[in-house]
Amino acid sequence: MNRGAVVTLLFLTLAGCGTARRSEPLVGPAPLDAEQVRGERVFMEFCHQCHPGGDAGLALAINNKPLPGAAIKLQVRKGVGQMPAFAEDVIPDEALDPLVSYMAAIRKNR
Amino acid sequence: MGKVRNPVGFKIVRVDPETGTVTDFAVNRGGQNGPASLLKSGGLERPVAVRFARDGASLYVVDFGVLTMDEKGSHPVRGTGCVWRIVRR
User: Fold this and answer.
1) B18–A contact, CB cutoff 8 A
2) Cβ contact (<8 Å) for A58 and B27?
3) I need a labelling partner for B47 at 20 to 30 A (CA). Which of A29, A77, B65, B84 fits?
4) What are B16's strand-pairing partners?
5) pLDDT tens for residues B27-52?
């Protein structure tokens, strides 16, 4: 891998990092559409316990990692490391898009 | 399990029992969540109880103060607790 590719990759990595805090007292409430409100409920039921508000807690922060939606869905379905997998009978397929949309909304609200 | 990657809690949240939504209400400023003693800032240390005033115009928060933990047990620091009063601007 040449130096230019390394610098580009490093820049993109750092551009997606930074604080993961999205507390409402700090950044204001995230504007959510109807789909994202549905996604918020899914997040609160299955994700918030380990990723509080998308920040780090028991698990890594997710607000500062701009993963594409397909990667998020794959991680939800397959799990990774200590993160459990959530099967379709737990989080239905039709709930994944709203969940991903909600995660994008809170990530952008900074 | 049991080891957190970032301090959890040390804030006050609102919970909507109908939707299960948890929203931060009062937090310490900064790029990281945590108690004031860790963040080296003023603010919440270890809030443990809340109660609205009878007229609903104030929220009182009991802050236990500094409490560290190690393999020998808990180590509260006398004189670091307080009661906060939060009012609407």
Assistant:
1) no
2) no
3) A29
4) B21
5) 999 999 999 999 998 899 999 999 99
